[in-house]
Amino acid sequence: MKLTVFGATGGIGQEIVKQALTAGHQVTAVVRDPARLSVTGTGLEVFRSDLSDPEALRPAVAGRDAVLSGLGARSRKDAGVAARLTRTVLAALEAEGVRRLLVVSAGPVGPAPEGDGALDRTARGVVSALLKDVYADLSEMEAELARSTTDWTVVRPPRLQNKPVTGTYRTAVGGFPRKGRFIGRADVAHAMLAMVDDPGTVKQGVGVAY
Predict the structure, then answer these.
(1) How far apart are CA 36 and CA 169, in angstroms?
(2) Sheet containing 100-104: which strands, arranged edge to edge?
(3) Strand (E) positions, the chain?
(4) pLDDT, tens digit, for every residue of 45-98?
(5) What is the pTM of this model?
(6) Per-domain residue ranges for the chain?
(7) Domain 2-209 has CATH 3.40.50.720
């Protein structure tokens, strides 16, 4: 497949690029600073952009089978970046008629798992309060996707870890895995790539966790 990856220098984005190249896909990595992209390989194209102009992004997405995005706030002070940058990406996709889009959100933005215990409910509430602005940004991003013409999928992980890909995790379409507290960034990338051609995830939020 021909894939474009936004946020390609982030933890999840770099994993998407690396795993996609390993699987034999052609990958366009959209980055602001190419020096921060440590992944190399046959089939990789690096496209430099600050994501300020949808028209300038059109060559990066034209003719692609799918677009995957790891864009988002890296801290509370960056709140607002996910919705703003996703609007730019959506405008470029819609101008080029590219339909498939997968993005990273966060577990607390979606519905709580059924049958969650008091400990998990309390932890979820504390995290949601601490990162209120970040989650509000992600909620707006998800609303932008819902208003778009794309065949979007929102992937909602819990707390992220840096660990090697395992390929062993749980997913819940329209919900969240019960007691799902952690997942590695590499496995979020693995899950996103597995969902690219899964029609059951189109226009759905998907919880993913160990």
Answers:
(1) 29
(2) 44-48, 26-31, 2-6, 66-69, 100-104, 151-156, 204-209, 170-173
(3) 2-6, 26-31, 44-48, 66-69, 100-104, 151-156, 159-161, 170-173, 182-184, 204-209
(4) 999 999 999 999 999 999 999 999 999 866 666 678 999 999 999 999 999 999
(5) 0.91
(6) 2-209
(7) yes
